[in-house]
Predict the structure.
Amino acid sequence: MRLRPGTVGVLSAFLVLASGFYLIKSSAHPPVRGRAASPEAAVISLHQATARDWFSLPGIGVVMAERIIAKKKATRGFYRIEDLLQVKGIGRRKLERLRPWIDLKSKGD
């Protein structure tokens, strides 16, 4: 079977992206199923969390983490945990599951 020109480039780009996502996923904190015995170990800051921090939380994948960061930038930050409801894919149930792992300290802390 002969590959079309450009197909090798597309396949190479796909492999690089897939391996990048794998490395991010494997180097992040392992996802926690249900409530952890000590949620303090995985607590992130609502105001300072990066996409990688969000990705470490249960139920948050790469796409959702990027959506959270994009919405945070578009709205100039989150001030309450309920502001996460503005993010497509986060509803009341998911918000309540995330609540134990989100620190609400002020931006200056």
Notes: The two ends are 60 Å apart (CA to CA). Residues 25 and 51 are 11 Å apart (CA to CA). Helices lie at 7-27, 51-55, 62-74, 92-98.
